[in-house]
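User: I'm preparing a small set of examples for a lab meeting where we compare how different chains pack in three dimensions. I only have the primary sequence for this one, and I'd like the structure in token form so I can line it up with the others. Please keep the answer compact; I'll paste it straight into my notes.
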Amino acid sequence: MITLFIVVLGIIMIMAALMAIYQKNLLSAIVASGVISLLASVIYILLAAPDVAMTEAAIGSGLTTIVFLYTLNKINKIKAKK
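Assistant: Understood. Below is the structure token output for the 82-residue chain.
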């Protein structure tokens, strides 16, 4: 049962990765990238690796997404000034 759940999460991760690659809206691409990291951390929990899951959730899903959103906000502000 857990194997099936991991496969389903993997398929959702692939779909989110394709969305992140082909999305024209940068905000949607950033959110899709965060979803990939969040699903990876869930998979790590299911595989009994809580230390890796917490690191992935904190760095991959949390910090990286925040840095990308901050950078996108700065770029939009610079574009608005011109």
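A couple of notes for your slides: DSSP finds three helices and no strands in the chain. The two ends are 55 Å apart (CA to CA).

User: Perfect, thanks.
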